[in-house]
Amino acid sequence: MQNKQLWIAVALTGLLMVLLFVAGWMFGRPKHADVVAEVESAPVDARAVFVPGGGQIDAIRRGVPIDQEGHPPPMAHVENADLRRARAYPMQPPTIPHAIDGYQIDKNSNRCMLCHARANAATFQAPPVSVTHYMDRDDQFLATISPRRYFCNQCHVVQTDAPVLVANQFRDIDSVLSSPPAAKE
Ligand code: HEC
Ligand code: HEC
Q1: How does pLDDT run across 30-65, given as a tens digit for each residue?
Q2: Per-domain residue ranges for the chain?
Q3: With 70 as the cut, is the pLDDT of residue 83 above it?
Q4: DSSP string, 66-113
């Protein structure tokens, strides 16, 4: 037992650490109730709200008074149903009908093009990116995806179940053309 002193030192240090931990745990923390009581909290609406009288839309605080902490609505779920949504107009970038979690796009690789490049589309049964994605700004066709179209998420978004933030009366050209002349205005 030549190391007796060493063992005693180790045991004492351990005991001290436990004591410090217990003391910190008991006295160091503010009580949960104290923290919560400081700010009132109100749920934030999932949709933008009209400010009465102001004629304006409050898309950020959504009616939560300035002296209250708003707790945000739950995040929308990404739909992964393989169902394409109609495009509102011909040049709308189609929404992505599948989840894209973990699909990396950086200097060295573009995960989307694994399936959406013309050469790979048949293997993965994915629609190839259209010819516009190979054109540069002078309308020249390039052999590979144009740098202008490299970052897919710049234009394409996933489909979610989020409610429409602000209501609108958009009608696509087909419904405008098919409505009776009197109602066209
Ligand atoms: C594993 C293969 C694969 C990868 C990776 C992939 N997709 Fe897809 N994508 C598909 C398939 C298959 C479809 C056809 C619809 C379906 O089955 O979901 C599709 C459909 C689409 C559509 C709909 C096209 C239309 O005409 O409506 C868009 C937009 C799209 N993908 C964009 C992307 C983007 C952006 C990425 C990268 C973040 C990506 N995809 C990564 C396989 C893939
Ligand atoms: C600058 C915006 C923009 C970027 C960036 C972009 N797209 Fe598109 N994409 C569009 C538009 C607009 C359309 C619809 C009109 C067209 O085909 O050009 C479209 C169409 C598509 C379609 C449907 C093609 C078809 O024939 O119906 C697919 C699939 C697609 N994009 C995938 C991608 C992928 C994958 C990337 C990334 C490599 C990407 N897009 C980058 C704007 C963009």
Answers
A1: 666 665 556 678 888 888 888 777 778 888 888 888
A2: 1-38, 77-161
A3: yes
A4: TTSEEEPPPPPPBP-S--PPPPSSTTSPPPBSS--TT--BSSS-BHHH
Nearest CA to ligand 2 atom 41: 152
The answer to whether the CB of 156 is under 6 A from ligand 1 is yes
* Residue among 98, 114, 124 to mutate when testing ligand 1 (max atoms within 8 A of CB): 98
| One CATH from 3.60.10.10, 2.60.40.1080, 1.10.1130.10, 3.40.630.30 for 77-161 | 1.10.1130.10
Distance 88 CA to ligand 1 centre (A): 19
pLDDT of res. 61: 85
Q: Which two tokens stand for residue 147?
A: 């740098």
Q: Is the pTM of this model over 0.85?
A: no
C-alpha closest to that of 124 among 148, 98, 144: 98
Cβ(44)–Cβ(64) below 8 Å:
yes
Looking at residue 31, its pLDDT comes to 67
